[in-house]
From TrEMBL:
Family matches, as PROSITE patterns: HTH_TETR_2
Region (Disordered): 1-34
Record protein name field: TetR/AcrR family transcriptional regulator
Gene source species: Kribbella qitaiheensis
GO MF annotation, one: DNA-binding transcription factor activity
InterPro entries per the UniProt record, alphabetical: Homeodomain-like_sf, HTH-type_TetR-like_transc_reg, HTH_TetR, Tet_transcr_reg_TetR-rel_C_sf, TetR_C_16
Residues in HTH tetR-type domain copies: 31-91
Annotated region of DNA binding: 54-73
Length: 212
């Protein structure tokens, strides 16, 4: 058959092309993909801890391909830092602490630690984190595991002594106590003491923990 009828039939047969069907699998990146990944990461870190969380597991929870997680975050450390909204990268803190003479470790630690707390944004975030650590066992465990992995571990390894972990943990007690009394409890005269004076007075104590 030829003519208009056959042409009409042929046109109908061709019709409008059906939209390509999406291949099954993870959804591609979208406007809020990074936010979804961070949400999934926070839940995973809170539920499984730092050691029990993997980039691949976070990708599954967020419903995205694992490559997208690696696109936004280079490593699990970075994912942890972003999901906890830490004001400073703990890996950079460890690098600064280990960058100078051994007999000045205490001063570098105090200078770095107080430098984070003294910045307005850093203090606001650190107060929120500190309060969460005190009131939530999940957050406390998460921070404990993450900070151990990124700060306590590297500094302990650099000390190279059998009781290095205990020494560095004692330093942590000094720093946490100082932060609580100065920034959360506002205990005077510690709360209003000049930072330089605090460093001069506390650094020798921290140094003693590490190298005495």
């Amino acid at each position: 058959m030829s003519g208009p009828a056959s042409r009409k039939a042929g046109t109908a047969g061709r019709g409008r092309a059906d939209p390509p069907s999406r291949a099954p699998g993870r959804r591609p990146g979208g406007p809020d993909t990074r936010g979804e990944i961070l949400r999934a990461a926070r839940e995973s870190f809170a539920g499984k801890g730092f050691a029990g969380t993997s980039m691949r597991a976070v990708a599954r929870e967020a419903g995205v391909d694992a490559a997208l997680v690696h696109h936004y975050f280079d490593s699990k450390d970075e994912l942890f830092i972003e999901s906890m909204a830490l004001p400073v990268d703990p890996r950079q803190i460890a690098a600064v602490i280990l960058s100078g003479p051994r007999d000045e470790l205490g001063r570098r630690i105090l200078t770095t630690f107080l430098g984070v707390w003294e910045s307005p944004d850093g203090q606001q975030r650190m107060k929120a984190i500190m309060r969460s650590v005190v009131t939530s066992e999940d957050v406390a465990r998460l921070m404990r595991e993450g900070i151990t992995e990124m700060i306590i571990g590297p500094v302990s390894d650099a000390l190279g002594v059998p009781d290095a972990r205990l020494r560095v943990s004692l330093v942590a007690t000094q720093l946490i106590g100082l932060a609580l009394t100065r920034y959360l409890v506002d205990l005077e005269p510690v709360a209003s003491a000049p930072v330089a004076e605090l460093i001069d007075r506390v650094a020798p104590v921290v140094q003693h923990y590490l190298t005495a």
